[in-house]
Amino acid sequence: MQPRDLSDHVAYEAGRGIEEVARELGRDPSEFVKLASNENPHGPSPAATVAIREHASSMSSYPKAAHTDLVAAIADRWNVEDEQVWLANGGDGAIDYLHRATLEPDDAVLVPTPGFAYYGMSSRFHHGEVDEYSIDRTDEFEQTADTVLEAYDGERVIWLTSPHNPSGSTMALTEIEALAAETDEETLVVVDEAYGEFAETESAVTLIQGQDGFDARDDVAVLRTFSKVYGLAGVRLGYAVVPEEWASAYTRVNTPFAAGELACRAGLAAMGDTEHVERTVETARTSREAMREGIDAHVWPSEGNFVLVDVDDAAAVAGELQERGVIVRDCTSFGLPGCIRITCGTDEETERAIEATNAVLADLEVDAEAEVPDR
Predict the structure, then answer these.
(1) How far apart are CA 255 and CA 177, in angstroms?
(2) How far is 120 from 110, CA to CA, in rounded Å?
(3) Which of the residues 143, 223, 237, 336 has an alpha carbon 20 to 30 A from that of 370?
(4) Boundaries of each Aminotransferase class I/classII large domain copy (predicted)?
């Protein structure tokens, strides 16, 4: 007995953790700072931590009330109906739900490259095909409707990422609307806004609502997560906001109690912790600007809680930084072997990352010059 043929499936490569790296190098974990996975440098919302403690004794019960309360709070946040909020076990769970609701066998999705690998992984899990459109570094990772339409061939779902991971670029609402208008009636445009709170652009939920001069659309959905700005990556909590016409599909595609009791309670508390959110956003904006100004290499403008740095040899630079106690993301797995991604940290962490990156780049340049033979 064997599993089905998974040869076309590519494993997701997560950023390396401190414990993993410290164990591999035989060093104390306290020597390292992790700036590889776009996590919140301030940790979880303190209010969420309190909520988890207070509700720990209710873990034996299914989270029906907590689920309902969180959905209502999210719906109120976005001025939509409760039924338009599809709560999930992380943003990746919401990706699965949208694919369950749309994909027939052999339907295709259109995904960005570079981009989040799970879009394609989830499509294949649901027996869908995967096509790609390019977000080109030579164009500063600009995202436009035309860029996507050049590759579009009637796919059932189009995935946009705004802010884009790993570049940090965003896509204007006018471009998203133009894309939705130019694609087939049965094509769903999904905007992944996992990093949306860090951006100064308006959410694509506006297109679903039909506000600010836009007509309401039934072919756009938005993805959000509690992992980033709220600091709840460890409890796995995310959601999709869908058009009203899609609302009834949720009960047919979701897993029973799509998010756990403690996750829902933590999410509800974190949504009310505006101080933590504001502090996190301000830290990210300060950090990414400091890295743009301070790193001795090209750093692309970013609207996320990270920056992308052009270093020529990502594996070498990431490896050397790791030796110096700074864990960053080698973007080779994104198809960018000349780039590293650095998460925005605290002021101290950011300063350390800048100094270490500049030192590594200088040392590698010296080494390269030393290898050039005399003529």
Answers:
(1) 31
(2) 8
(3) 336
(4) 31-356
User: Which residue in the block uniquely carries the two structure tokens 């309401």?
Assistant: 216
Model confidence over 232-287: pLDDT tens digits?
999 999 999 999 998 889 989 998 888 999 999 999 999 999 999 999 999 999 99
Q: pTM to 2 decimals?
A: 0.94
| Residue burial 279-296, b: 16+ Cβ < 10 Å; e: rest | ebbebbbebbbbbeeebe
Domain positions in the chain: 18-44+274-365, 46-271
Q: Are strands 238-241 and 85-88 parallel, antiparallel or unpaired?
A: antiparallel
- Please say whether the beta carbons of 181 and 220 come within 8 A: no
Q: Long-range contacts of range 358-367, CB-CB < 8 Å, 24 or more positions apart? A: 358/294, 358/295, 358/296, 359/324, 360/317, 360/320, 360/321, 360/324, 361/296, 361/297, 361/311, 361/317, 362/296, 363/320, 364/313, 364/316, 364/317, 364/320
- The beta-strand segments (E) located in 48-103 are 85-88
Sign of CA dihedral 267, 273, 278, 284: negative
Residue 77: half-sphere exposure toward Cβ, Cα within 13 Å: 19
The Cα–Cα gap between 244 and 258 comes to 20
Whole-number Å distance between alpha carbons of 181 and 78: 23
Q: How many CB atoms lie within 10 A of CB 366?
A: 10
For 12-45, how does the pLDDT look when each residue is reduced to its tens digit (9 = 90+)? 777 778 888 888 888 888 889 999 999 999 999 9
